[in-house]
Amino acid sequence: MNTLTEGEVYRIHWVPGTDRLLAVCHCGGEREFEDPVALWDWLLAHPEGHSSPHAHASPAAS
Amino acid sequence: MTAFVRNQWYVAAYAHEVGRELLGRTVLGEPILLYRTEDGRAVGLADRCVHRRFPLSEHPSRLEGDKVVCGYHGFTYGTDGVCVRVPGQTRVPRTARLATYPVVEQDSFVWVWIGDREPGDTLPPRAPWLDSPHYTTVCGMEPIEGDYGLLVDNLLDLSHETYLHGGYIGTPEVAETPITTEVDDKSAIVRVSRHMDDAECPPFYANSTGIQGRITRWQDIEYHAPALYLLHSRVAPVGTPAPRPDGSDPDAFHVEVVYGITPSTEKSTYDFWAVARDFALDDQEVTEYLRSSNHTVVMQDVVALNALQRALDTEKPGYQELSINIDTGGLAARRILARLAAENSPQAAAR
């Protein structure tokens, strides 16, 4: 598959040998799911619940 | 129903369908008249006479040079939609004008722009194989009595090939092989990829390529929401080298399957299908085989989707569906279509 490099790209991998899906947000946040509907709910809630260091656009207040 | 997405290009016809005969197509509920001027330019006008709404694509309406003469009372229109003649009087009312549609001919399709603003620099997505000298293409169009979202769902999940199209393009491996999904939200592109390393060769490919044994079979979907679907299909005997780093792939067979998905009314859809191959280019037998086989496959989908629409019509509002892993791409497409529809609704334009 060609890899898109621009814009906000979401990737969903079917974890080999399992029934699980790995959702990868454009922010780098990752999470596994058993249900694609729940998966999309999580991806689209970005940045809420995306624990990646890149998930929040603004730096933490000091 | 799946909401219409305005401010987009849609396939209204194949270039070879548009000529000096008047052709009527309804796109996103808008009746459109298509024809070609004497110098070969494709024209798109509203397909309703301003007088009593007679369809200009209906007999005995006709062309007089580049002008359209309504077959009911003779109202006559130029390619710019302006009425130039009405019967029995010299004064033509100022408001006697047909809406015009921007038209682009590209890759053997006639695209029309359906929107509340002009397309500007926006061009339709490409399917360059369809009129490339390096490919041979078979194509057709079948109307579906169903919401266009049903066809999007169908095409985004090819695991249905195993069940609906067994004996043609479906083999057990299609439904059994996991997919990878990639969604570019901004560009409204969904990619679904299924790479089968060691699969049975279905008759569609065995009979057209001559491959006898098992194959590696790659299906790389690229859906440009809402109107164009591409399936890059790569087939090669097991053990064939992978594509080279420069992108060339001389040892494999390639088929580019293209669908123009054009919503006609809320519950009818034009299914423009095309199959372009990069092998046996001049073999008429292969051409006829692929034309006939693919038409059969398309009709299997049409019959199934018509039945599905009839079933959905009897469902109570708020009925439940169940989605599983194979639906990941289809769910992404639905979401993108809903977003595009909301962003391009007349209400959004008014804000």
Name the chain pair with the biggest interface and residue counts per chain.
A-B, 22 and 22 residues
How much β-strand is present in the residues of chain B? 25-35%
Total E-strand runs of chain B:
17
How much helix, percentage-wise, in residues of chain B? 10-25%
* Secondary-structure class of chain A: alpha+beta
Report the CATH architecture of the largest domain in chain B. Answer: Alpha-Beta Complex
CATH superfamily of the largest domain in chain B, by name, is Naphthalene 1,2-dioxygenase Alpha Subunit, Chain A, domain 1
The number of helical runs of chain B is 7
- Beta-strand percentage range of chain A: 15-25%
Helix/strand order of chain B, N-terminal first = EEEEEEEEEEEHHHEEHEEEEHHH
Poorly predicted runs of chain B: none
Shape of chain B: globular
Rg for CA atoms of chain B: 22 Å
What does this protein structure show overall?
The complex is a heterodimer of chains A (62) and B (351). Chain A has a domain at 11-44. Helix content of chain A is 15%, strand content 23%. Chain A contains one helix and three strands; from the N terminus they run βββα. In chain A, strands 1-2-3 form a three-stranded antiparallel beta sheet, with helices on one face. The radius of gyration of chain A is 13 Å and the shape is globular. Chain A starts with 8 loop residues before the first strand and ends in an 18-residue tail after the last helix. The model of chain A is unreliable at 1-5 and 54-62 (pLDDT under 50). By secondary structure, chain B is an alpha+beta fold. Chain B has two domains: 8-114, Rieske Iron-sulfur Protein; 128-343, Naphthalene 1,2-dioxygenase Alpha Subunit, Chain A, domain 1. Chain B has helices spanning 148-156, 161-164, 172-176, 203-209, 284-313, 328-343, 346-350; strands spanning 8-14, 23-27, 30-36, 42-46, 62-64, 67-69, 76-77, 83-85, 103-106, 109-114, 136-144, 180-184, 189-199, 215-224, 228-237, 253-265, 268-277. In chain B, the strands form four sheets. In chain B, strands 11-17-16-15-14-13-12 form a seven-stranded antiparallel beta sheet. A four-stranded antiparallel beta sheet of chain B has the order 5-6-7-8, with no helix packed on it. In chain B, α1 (148-156) runs antiparallel to α6 and α4 (203-209) packs antiparallel against α5 (284-313). The longest helix of chain B has 30 residues, at 284-313. The two termini of chain B are 24 Å apart. In chain B, 40% of the residues are buried. At the A-B interface, β1 and α1 of A face β12, β13 and α6 of B. Chain B: Keywords: 2Fe-2S, Iron, Iron-sulfur, Metal-binding, Oxidoreductase. Chain B: It comes from Streptomyces spinoverrucosus. Chain B: GO terms for molecular function: 2 iron, 2 sulfur cluster binding; metal ion binding; monooxygenase activity; oxidoreductase activity, acting on paired donors, with incorporation or reduction of molecular oxygen. Chain B: InterPro entries: Cholesterol_7-desaturase, Rieske_2Fe-2S, Rieske_2Fe-2S_sf, VanA_C_cat.
